[in-house]
Amino acid sequence: MNILVVGGAGYIGSHMVKMLAKAGHDVVVLDNLSTGFRSAVKYGELVVGDLADIHLLEGLFAKHSFDGVMHFAANSLVGESVDYPSKYYRNNVSNTLNLLDVMVRHDVRHFIFSSTAATFGEPDYTPIDEAHPQRPINPYGASKLMVERILKDYATAYGLNSVCLRYFNACGADPEGDLGENHDPETHLIPLILQAASGRREAITVFGRDYATADGSCVRDYIHIQDLCSAHLLALEHLITGAGQGALAFNLGNGAGYSVQQVIEVVKRVVAEDGCELVVKEGERRAGDPAILVADATQARAVLGWQPFYDDLETIIRHAWAWELRDKALLS
Ligand SMILES: NC(=O)c1ccc[n+]([C@@H]2O[C@H](COP(=O)([O-])OP(=O)(O)OC[C@H]3O[C@@H](n4cnc5c(N)ncnc54)[C@H](O)[C@@H]3O)[C@@H](O)[C@H]2O)c1
Ligand SMILES: O=c1ccn([C@@H]2O[C@H](COP(=O)(O)OP(=O)(O)O[C@H]3O[C@H](CO)[C@@H](O)[C@H](O)[C@H]3O)[C@@H](O)[C@H]2O)c(=O)[nH]1
């Protein structure tokens, strides 16, 4: 198949490009390199450009005959979205509309969308299944939910078939060590802890110890990037074979929650093997953090046949640690 990966120079997109290429598909990456990296695109053709550029999109779709589109491009910092909502609605919603409209004009009807647990807001219950109400509490989550809504209307009106995959906490790195997580600024827990362990940061700060959880720190569902990508491949096949039609959505996580403290303990164990230690500091709660977010991914397993392979937190951390050591060595 010939697949367009929008945002393929970013963390999740770059791993997806590799998996698609390894599975024998042709890949074109469209990325404006705003938060992604040219060096992360190791397979296929990279077109540097912006989703806001409708002429570029028209040219791209006229030149290639795409079988499907995977859309990872977005701004995704919760705090920034509260301060600059315009940026989020423009990039995550308006620019996505540009993409969807050009797809409809060129009769490309298979679309996989990166959605998020942030569309649920404060959970009423956990694990969170697809029936859980979606009440986002920040513009980032709201922008993603708007696209989910748009996709329902585009399925009805234009026959555009789509799968929204709502990731919980994406983490880990390519098991072969070719790719890993690079965000600037980095805000995600696991890479921050590893940077503290490797000496790139002074310490890791735990944001709040007074949550209603076993040890007082927040609980999250950490899912390996390879398992996220395998779900995308299955979702694409589900659409292309015609098994899935309309606008579908699945929650993606391992269904197991780990507290910030538990993640720190696993990291300490792994990095001690390399003689590294970790300084842990206590901090205030970060605004907008729910106490517990854990996915119920029963639907993804039942409908897509998805099976996470790297569902053990220690393996996830080992892969991310290998990437951190490589990255640090490159920088020094
Ligand atoms: N990382 C997570 O834990 C997580 C969790 C849930 C959902 N998501 C979603 O997954 C997707 C990928 O996340 P990531 O962590 O890989 O982010 P990332 O920032 O590493 O990747 C996003 C990529 O999109 C590109 N991009 C952004 N706007 C663009 C535009 N207008 N035109 C062209 N390219 C553009 C960036 O340059 C970057 O390469 C995002 O949509 C994010 O909201 C991520
Ligand atoms: O220095 C830090 C950074 C994070 N945390 C905590 O670690 C947990 C995980 O935080 P983070 O890695 O920032 O992920 P989330 O805030 O859970 O958000 C991720 O997961 C969401 C879905 O669950 C997605 O919507 C977001 O895009 C993605 O960044 C949270 O409880 C944070 O409070 C700390 O204690 N210290």
Automatic annotation (TrEMBL):
InterPro entries assigned: Epimerase_deHydtase, NAD(P)-bd_dom_sf, UDP_G4E
EC id: 5.1.3.2
Any GO BP annotation: galactose catabolic process via UDP-galactose, Leloir pathway
Domain NAD-dependent epimerase/dehydratase: 3-244
Cofactor: NAD(+)
Source domain of life: Bacteria
UniProt xrefs under Pfam families: Epimerase (PF01370)
Listed pathway(s): Carbohydrate metabolism; galactose metabolism
Keywords, alphabetical: Carbohydrate metabolism, Isomerase, NAD
GO molecular function: UDP-glucose 4-epimerase activity
Enzyme class, spelled out: isomerase
Catalyzed chemical reaction(s): UDP-alpha-D-glucose = UDP-alpha-D-galactose
Record-stated family: Belongs to the NAD(P)-dependent epimerase/dehydratase family.
Assembly and interaction partners: Homodimer.
Official protein name in the record: UDP-glucose 4-epimerase
Native species: Thiomicrospira cyclica (strain DSM 14477 / JCM 11371 / ALM1) (Thioalkalimicrobium cyclicum)
